[in-house]
Write a structure and sequence with these properties.
It comes from Horornis vulcanius. Keywords: Disulfide bond, EGF-like domain, Glycoprotein, Secreted, Signal. Residues 144-198 form the VWFA domain. The structure is a single chain. With 198 residues, the chain is mainly β. It has four domains: 11-55, Laminin (Ribbon), CATH 2.10.25; 58-96, Laminin (Ribbon), CATH 2.10.25; 99-137, Laminin, CATH 2.10.25.10; 143-196, no CATH class. Helix content is 11%, strand content 34%. It is built from two helices and 15 strands. A three-stranded mixed β-sheet has the order 13-14-15, with helices on one face. It has a two-stranded antiparallel sheet with strand order 1-2. It has a two-stranded antiparallel ribbon with strand order 3-4. A hairpin with a 3-residue loop joins strand 14 and strand 15 (192-196). It starts with a strand and ends with a strand.
């Protein structure tokens, strides 16, 4: 087609090859002397078909230093931690999340966080039950327990009350039954007296 210059001469008009929209460029179309070429936005490169754009995989360069996972984005990359871990302030290293504070762990006594997980523990002398959450009580086993207490006058009344409270607390912890734990009590002073047998 011909255009008109201000001095009256005719010249070929510049053809915008990108204007008709049939170029197929994914990002940008650049008109060049009656033809066109495709260009990509920053962070992308032109694919072999010369029309589509592929994001540059910055993680594939091998210099990202991410402890767990590297994620490419159009103008670089960022580090991401696996589930159960949190990204540290250096934006590269990961640390296990304290799941004991973040989940309903159900531990009867104490929850201990481990890398990406947690487990329950029991106080000394008790064992963790099969459910992994509750602790066995002292009375879980079958025992015969006979307690001997001093009932002489040298034990003052307030001290004798303390001894009785102690005995009651021990018995309350046990599962007392004829076929389970059996408890007996013997009191001594000037003579020995069986208060109750097993």
């Amino acid at each position: 087609r011909l255009g008109q210059e201000g001095d009256g001469c005719l010249f070929p008009a510049a053809i915008d090859a990108c204007a008709d929209g049939r170029h197929g460029c994914q990002h940008h179309c650049v008109s060049v002397r009656g033809s066109y070429s495709c260009r990509c936005r920053a962070g992308y490169y032109l694919s072999q078909n010369k029309r589509s754009c592929t994001m540059i995989d910055y993680c594939s360069f091998g210099n990202h230093s991410c402890q767990h996972e590297c994620v490419s984005i159009p103008n670089g990359h960022y580090c991401r931690c696996r589930s159960g871990f949190t990204l540290q302030p250096d934006s590269k290293s990961c640390r296990a999340t304290d799941l004991c504070n973040g989940v309903d762990h159900g531990c009867e006594f104490k929850c201990v966080s481990t890398e990406g997980s947690y487990h329950c523990v029991c106080p000394e002398g008790q064992q963790l039950q099969a459910d992994g959450k509750t602790c066995s009580k002292c009375g879980a086993g079958h025992v015969d327990l006979v307690m001997v207490i001093d009932g002489s006058k040298s034990v003052r009344p307030q001290n004798f009350e303390l001894v009785k409270q102690f005995v009651n607390r021990i018995v309350d912890l046990l599962e007392v039954s004829p076929h389970g734990t059996r408890v007996g009590l013997v009191q001594y002073s000037s003579r020995v007296r069986t208060e109750f047998p097993l």
